[in-house]
Amino acid sequence: ELKKNKDLALFAIEQSWEALQFIDEELHDNLDVMTAAVSQKGEALRYASDRLRVNPTLVSQAANDGWEVVTEGNDVALQLRTQGITWAPRPVR
Known about the structure:
The chain is an alpha+beta fold and about 90 residues long. The chain is about 35% helix and about 20% strand.
């Protein structure tokens, strides 16, 4: 199936990180795929698998774009830091 094709996913992500929402979830656990997306926009980290969401390289890339991973109890959220204000667009899966 096309949604599971890593090369096609990488090509789509090169066009826009938002292509993540259309690829197979298994690819959200692929470091190459997620690195390509997060390097464009830190917000892409919210699509990463639980394993990759805590990957130091990806977290650092997201932080450079103004995002950070925070935990509160058992909840994990990707938040945008802007001028001292924290905004969470939606919970991370």
